[in-house]
Amino acid sequence: MKGVKKQHLPQKLCATCARPFTWRKKWERVWDEVRYCSDACRANRSGARLTATAGPGPRRVR
Ligand SMILES: [Zn+2]
What we know:
With about 60 residues, this protein is largely without helices or strands. The protein has one helix at about 40-45; strands at about 10-15, 20. Strands 1-2 form a two-stranded antiparallel sheet. Bound molecules: zinc ion.
């Protein structure tokens, strides 16, 4: 009887589909920045800013 292979991998919730996804090897360097479970979700992220060319702060044109 050998020890159970119980990996304790971190999880996150996808910002698009709200499903939990588990740490993957390919994310080991960018895990802090990963917010989507897949490339598809990253492309389909809701509320994406289409035009974010303006800098921070309100833009008043008067
Ligand atoms: Zn997702």
